[in-house]
UniProtKB/TrEMBL annotation:
Name of the protein in its database record: Chaperone protein DnaJ
UniProt xrefs under CDD domains: DnaJ_C, DnaJ_zf
GO biological process assignments: DNA replication; protein refolding
Domain CR-type: 51-128
Matching SUPFAM superfamilies: DnaJ/Hsp40 cysteine-rich domain, HSP40/DnaJ peptide-binding domain
Keyword terms: Chaperone, DNA replication, Metal-binding, Repeat, Stress response, Zinc, Zinc-finger
GO CC annotations on file: cytoplasm
Cross-referenced NCBIfam families: PRK10767.1
Gene Ontology MF, one: zinc ion binding
Pfam families documented for this protein: DnaJ_C, DnaJ_CXXCXGXG
Record-stated family: Belongs to the DnaJ family.
C-alpha cells in the first residue's frame, strides 16, 4: 500500500553485508594490499636435509618503475575530495553502521589526474621477480615458508603481498623418507650372507662400513644406523637410518656353481 511510512529494510541485504564483512567477502573496507603469491619449490633429498638457498623467478605485478608506483605521470596525486582522503565511507543501514571503500578512489583516499602511460594509473605492471629463498635444513614436502613483502605490488599507497613457498621433495634413487627417519636397501651376495662380511652401506654423508654376521645377513633383516637420518627444523638431534638387507640370488649359474650349491646342506 501507499503512505509515507519508513521502508522495510531488506534483511537479506543487511545480513549479507554483515556476513561479507566478517568472512572477508562483500565490498572492501579499504584499499587492499597486493595479492599473495604461492610457489612450489622442488628440492632433492640432499637439499631438503642439508638446507639450500635458491633464486627463483616468479611472474607477478611489480611496482611501475616509471611512476615509482604512484600511478601518476608527473608523480602528483590529489586527495580525494569526495572522501576527504579517508578512502572509506560510513553509512547507516537500519540499526547497523556500515563501512566500505569509496568507489571514486578505490579506497586509497587519493586520485590520479594525469595517469602514467606505462601502467595506466594502476601503479603496477606485469613483470618477473627474482627472489632469493633460503630453505632451512630438515624441511619436508608440505612445509611452507613466508617471505614478507615479496608478493605482488599493491595499488598505489598500499603495501605488497607476501610470497609463500611450499616444499616438494623429489623421490630419491636410494633413500626413502618416513618423517625424519631414512630407509634404504643393502644388497649383498649370497656368499656374504652365508659367511658374513664387511659391507659398505650408503648414507647421506657417504658410505659407512658395517660388519655383518651370518645371522644378521638374511633378506628382510633390518639394522639401524643411529644419527644418520634427518635433523628436522623442529628438533636438535638427527633421527636414524634403517637398512634392510636384500640377499642377491645368482641367476646364471655355471654347472660347477650349481653343483656346489646343491651339495651345501
Amino acid at each position: 500500500g501507499g503512505g509515507g511510512g519508513r521502508p522495510t529494510p531488506d534483511m537479506n541485504d543487511i545480513f549479507g553485508d554483515i556476513i561479507g564483512t566478517i568472512f572477508g567477502g562483500g565490498k572492501a573496507r579499504g584499499a587492499r594490499r597486493g595479492a599473495d603469491i604461492d610457489y612450489v619449490m622442488e628440492l632433492d633429498l640432499e637439499e631438503a636435509v642439508g638446507g639450500v638457498e635458491k633464486r627463483i623467478v616468479i611472474p607477478s605485478l611489480a611496482e611501475c618503475d616509471t611512476c615509482n608506483g604512484s600511478g601518476s605521470e608527473d608523480g602528483k596525486v590529489e586527495t580525494c575530495a569526495s572522501c576527504q582522503g579517508h578512502g572509506q565511507v560510513r553509512f547507516q543501514r537500519g540499526i547497523f553502521a556500515m563501512q566500505q571503500a569509496w568507489p571514486e578512489c578505490g579506497g586509497r583516499g587519493q586520485v590520479v589526474r594525469n595517469a602514467c602511460r606505462k601502467c595506466h594509473g594502476q601503479g603496477r605492471v606485469e613483470d618477473e621477480q627474482v627472489v632469493s629463498v633460503k630453505m632451512p635444513a630438515g624441511v619436508d614436502s608440505g612445509d611452507r615458508i613466508r617471505l614478507n613483502g615479496e608478493g605482488e605490488a599493491g595499488a598505489p599507497g598500499t603495501p605488497p603481498g607476501d610470497l609463500y613457498v611450499e616444499v616438494r621433495v623429489r623421490e630419491h634413487d636410494i633413500f626413502g623418507r618416513d618423517g625424519d627417519d631414512l630407509h634404504c636397501e643393502v644388497p649383498i651376495r649370497i656368499s656374504q650372507a652365508a659367511l658374513g662380511d664387511t659391507v659398505n652401506v650408503p648414507t647421506l654423508g657417504g658410505e659407512a662400513e658395517i660388519r655383518m654376521e651370518p645371522a644378521e645377513s638374511q633378506t628382510g633383516k633390518t639394522f639401524r644406523l643411529r644419527g644418520n637420518g634427518v635433523r628436522s627444523v623442529r628438533s636438535r638431534a638427527p633421527r636414524d637410518l634403517y637398512c634392510r638387507v636384500v640377499v642377491e640370488r645368482p641367476v646364471n649359474l655355471s654347472a660347477e656353481q650349481r653343483e656346489l650349491l646343491e651339495s651345501t646342506p
